Amino acid sequence: MYEVIKYIWIIFISLGISGILDYAQPKLSDYHFFNGPLKNQIPNLNVIPYQISTPLFTDYAHKLRFLVLPEGQKMSYINPENFDFPIGTILIKTFYYPIDFREPKNNWQIIETRLLINTNEGWFGYPYIWNAEQTDAFLEIAGDRQIVSWIDLDGKPQKANYLVPNVNMCKGCHVSENQFLPIGPKPRLLNCNFKTTEIKPYHQLEKMIQMGLIENLPEIESIPITANWEDSHFSLENRARAYLDINCGHCHNSNGPAMTSGLYLNYSENDLHKIGYYKTPVASGRGSGNLKYNIVPGNPDESIIIYRMESSDSGIMMPELGRKLVHKEGVKLIRDWINSIESN
Amino acid sequence: MIQHNFKLILTFIFSINILLFSNFEKDFQTQLILVETGGIIKIPSGEFEIKGTLSIEGKNNITIEGNDMNNSILSFINQEDGAEGLRVINCKNITLKNFTAQNTKGDGIKAQDTDIIYFYNVKTEWTNGPKPTNGSYGIYPVQCSNILIDGCIAIGASDAGIYVGQSKNIIVKNCEAFHNVAGIEIENSTNADVFDNYAHDNTGGILVFDLPDLEVKDGHNIRVYNNLVKDNNLFNFAPPGNIVGTVPAGTGIMVLATSGVEIFENDIIDNKTVGTAVVSYFITEDPILDSLYNPYTSSIYIHDNKFERKPQIPTLKHEIGQLMFLKFWKDVPEIVYDGNPDPQYIDSKGKIINENRFCIENNNNAEFLNLDINNNFTNWYTPFFTSFSQDESSFTCRLPRISPTILK
Fold first, then answer.
1. Model confidence pLDDT, tens digit, residues A86-137
2. Of chain B residues 120-149, which have a CB less than 8 A from chain A?
3. A96: distance to nearest CA of chain B, Å?
4. Could you give the CA distance from residue A105 to residue A103 in angstroms, rounded to a whole number?
5. Which residues, in sequence order, are CB contacts of A301 under 8 Å at separation 6+?
6. Extents of the domains making up chain B
7. B242 to A288: CB separation less than 8 angstroms, yes or no
């Protein structure tokens, strides 16, 4: 009986006007972003691949990113944190695992492709889940869970219980002052070289200007650079702050969902106490791990931030969504950084 | 891009999904995403296993409703994703009623950035008893306004069972909270009425706190009245590192660093360490690095309460309890004040401005103790050699009544 009532109810709501479904296609192939078999992810000319200087950790998933501007329109530079994207802009992010990470070009398992679409009601996020045959991906607003396995760079088998976020989880991270916003394509994060094995690296912002995609961009030299967390040409502090920025700062800033904690990890935060130095936790419960402060300079083992990064218990770990595994390399970076800070 | 037949296809897919797999979680989350203004989402009777945080975002005028709190149960015992059970964020006019959220990894039901949020007959619980591995908060509105929590039950939270933080216009009534570290806590919040509740067998019954390093500070205008606050003698099982971990077991009502609090007509019974405590943030001994924070209490009015306490040993796991035990053995005073007024309200003659005083009046069976921490706690050993003042004459006074909280 319950199922029948549900069935009727869902017909009812689905026939109504629900904004979020109005802007999405049911299948990824419906958008015609790619040329040839979808799984090869060869973009059409109007679909621009991009990279960001430090990416979010998502259980070691590999990612491809593209953006599509409406024909004849440009994205407009506002400040190092923001472009103004025209309505109709679509951001595309595909998550995949090479079966063997030592041969990253071959044998992909593509899990999902997320779209952010800028509509006249604001941005919406949509997860598309790939079928087993890898021929297409289908909109699933309620998300999904999948077991993924691969061989890591050391030749060891790895496994993760991968979460495809539901539409509200997308918002959970992508919200600032209650507005849905993109996170990755910020001028300061695009201010780096695009690197692949096939072609010579090129500077992304320069290329985008050449292609006529950006307007109002100041001299590139004047735009701040956010460090690549893996590139030792940057200082340890800058790399650590870049890592915290992309992994934590989208929530942990004075306008983000984690503002209730008073801990701000966005790149531009300069108040050491707000970054966590000798800052007591507020509502972290067992996430505090018997420790008193978020960051104890010179002492990573006494720092809550390390405790939470090293946990994979959903009641303790941070970020609270988007990973099931501990990012060993990321933890090492933040440990090294905290070790390097002189205690006063 | 609207495609009517696309919606029909989706409808078909969802329906098949439900009919064949009866996947409650996916269906329920889908409803939370698609529900329209004015919609009601039902939780049938039964225990439904949920593996990830359920969330509703950006909606207006929605009711989420079970049949009754003992039969419509969302069970998070095998939760894999996210820490909260149900998350309400950036909404307006939300009613939650007649269901239970059980054994969440983190907080039970969290509401944030929401104006008008009503909880009726909602229960949050951890079913394996009080444990530090339980989630922090049961019913947890934060940075919300116009909050009503009515007829709810909160059990087993490792921080606070019912916790309202950084919010304004709050009514908590007819609720029961037990086996939590804090039964009911109002923190960094303004305009709150807490009445007709039963807080028992927690570490601390009802707490009114104001803490540093938060976006919203300076909580005030809090009325705590007509509550039964009994047997709050549970060991403090908060995970260390949390501020609530500093609350001594056996605390009835505690006001920390908040101004404008009226505590009246409560029955405060058999809380072994302290019936009602009023203290500044300095008692936590944590450094204050937040320059905008006011660590003092002021304008506190405690009147017409009934205290009752059978002789029993206060907690010996807390310095204050140890001190009480040494000084008073089994008959500790009911009202304890740290005697640390806000210096900004002290006039040129060294007197506290009338309306900012600490006042006690007409309490039944209420022995008083002034810790006077500025003079008696200069060294760790000094309190043990001090004879504390129990003279309440300079604190017997009356303050203007705080006006009732009105929800908009």
1. 999 999 999 999 999 999 998 999 999 999 999 998 999 999 999 999 999 9
2. 132-133, 135-137, 142-143
3. 20
4. 6
5. none
6. 126-395
7. yes
